[in-house]
Amino acid sequence: MSDKVSRRQLAKIAGLSAAAMAGALEAAEAKPAAPPRNGGGFPAGFVWGTATSSYQVEGAVNEDGRGASIWDKFVRIPGKIEDGTTGDRANEHYHRYKEDIALIKELGCRAYRFSVAWPRVFPDGDGKPNPKGLDFYNRLVDELLKNGIEPWLTLYHWDLPQSLEDRFGGWRSTETCKIFGDYAAYVAEHLTDRVKNVFTLNESGRFVYFGYGIGIDAPGLTLPQAEVNQIRHNSALAHGFAVQAVRAHGGRGTRVGPAENIDACAPAIDTPENVRAAEIALREMNAGYLNVIMTGGYTDAFLKYAGPNAPKFTDAELKIISSPVDFLGLNIYAPQNYVVASDQGAGFMPLPIPKSFPHMNSDWLRVGPETIYWVPKLAAKIWKTDAIYISENGASGDDMVRPDGRIYDTDRIMYLRNYLAQLQRATSEGVPVRGYFLWSLMDNFEWVYGLNKRFGLYHVNFDTQVRTPKLSASFYRNVIANNAAGV
């Protein structure tokens, strides 16, 4: 991947340019923030978890009737994966899930976010389901519950059945959206007797733009902006179909919501005018997906900026897209835009990010702990939600195995300590963050980077499949045990 291409280029992903947007709206009055709450830790009942995704850990791509996904094809295109590896084997989680669940239990986590591989359950995306595929997730869920760990299920984490890409153009067609709804209904019917929390699509912003816009992710296409905007609209529509399917076919008490890599906007300086500017920026930079889901309409500024490239849609589609959700999942890693107030139109101005800005092992992963304070706080205000979950947060590191066999990842601990302190600051002020899922449980196949980027609390030797706890595993275990970041 080029150094010039960030993993989460969300200003472009949302179909908006922050600089262009600065002249598209008029500023509005700021509202007073909620009064702070007392307390030294996280709220009682705060959900502590960790996360993985199917293609990144399961392996066994040709076993028990699983069909091919777009990633199975994409990883075989020369030059697409940095180290030339694939997810064919990955972490062998398909066979080692009991061992991995034991690792989750060792951390003290009471929740685990995993994704269902769509082509494992429906090899062709639709048609006849594969019983052996569903059986794996039944076993996984039962083993989690046996160990006192609550399963949180993601319906789609990028492994679209290749058959749907071949037949319909994947997310280019609303036919895929409808089939996704059918798939969601089937999963809900068979698993939500035990799984009570369901995420719909993971990171529409990433898989749409990177997969169909600039060709970095599967299926590797570079389509015109109008088509990319339409695909993003289709992904929002698929989300809506999935919400309706879970409502209709899920067990009593099942909750559902999106998990999105929100374009993270924060005020450069904490003043009322800059905070208001960040609020406007957060809404408009996420107008192409999250805002339409949460409000049922595209903003005037989004449509004006998109112009002839704006997605085509109907009122009926907007109604489906905005089907009420129970929570909002936010994947928060790095600041995308620092903004200040401006007297030009919109009331905000994005600032350039200096080359010297600190970052982790991955160049795109800037270290901006205040992001995880401001984004949930502003999101709760903009979209009037009372339940936010940090569905992903974590960091890559060098993770060298030392002569004593240990991994002293103090860089990851630094990152987590500072981010969690800012998240604790948010909850102490009444921001409705109800839980946190650390990415990731263990090192895995990190998409275009292959096995080169390590995000895990557990180091994985991909030759032997031995899992070794890093120092950060001890750190996170202590955070969970104390329900506080300052440990």
TrEMBL record:
Residues 1-27 form the signal peptide. Transmembrane segments: none annotated. It is an enzyme of class 3 (hydrolase). Substrate binds at Q56, H157, N202, Y333, W439, E446, W447. InterPro entries: GH, GH_1_N_CS, Glyco_hydro_1, Glyco_hydro_1_beta-glucosidase, TAT_signal. Keywords: Carbohydrate metabolism, Cellulose degradation, Glycosidase, Hydrolase, Polysaccharide degradation, Signal. GO terms for biological process: cellulose catabolic process. This is Beta-glucosidase. It comes from Bradyrhizobium vignae. The gene is bglA.
